[in-house]
Amino acid sequence: YYAEVDFEGFKEIVDILGGIDYDVPYDMDYDDPVQNLHIHLKAGMQHLDGQAAHDYVRFRHNNNGTAPGDYALGDPGRINAQQAFLKELVRQKLQPQYLLKAPELAKAISEHVKTNFTVAEGLKYVGMLRKMDAESFQTFVLPGGSKMISGASYYIHDAEKTRQLVLEEFGYP
Prior knowledge:
Elements: E1 3-5, H1 7-16, E2 20-24, E3 28-32, E4 37-41, E5 44-48, H2 50-58, H3 75-93, H4 102-112, E6 113-115, H5 119-131, E7 144-149, E8 152-157, H6 159-170
Antiparallel strand pairs: 1-6, 2-5, 3-4, 7-8
């Protein structure tokens, strides 16, 4: 199964959950007027609302071209930051009190998430959420590498290594 969340949905979901307390590892200063993307976060522990969380996960490098820490690795560095953010979001928000937010979350999900899950299939897995915690939450990166195509950088997955990853981690081809 897959689930694709658009940027507006990501921001809305984080806001519905009351934001996240997160230790931003570096000052982030980036502006892209073409995308109307303006990221200005200071390093340190802070409470991120949906917009600030969105900015954090979208960051690649500063206006001056510097890429602090793992961001110097390019896409893999940003993926590491995104995965750490998601794990912390799960750790903070996978709590019983957030079940009360289910109706609001369901509405946001219906408006902003593309998935091949049916409602019936999704309901089958809701019970698993009670057993899940941040330690059991795992993320993976599709094996592959960066490639320049027509002047733009793309991450291209390696089909055979991806098949092997799925087989090893999930037990099916």
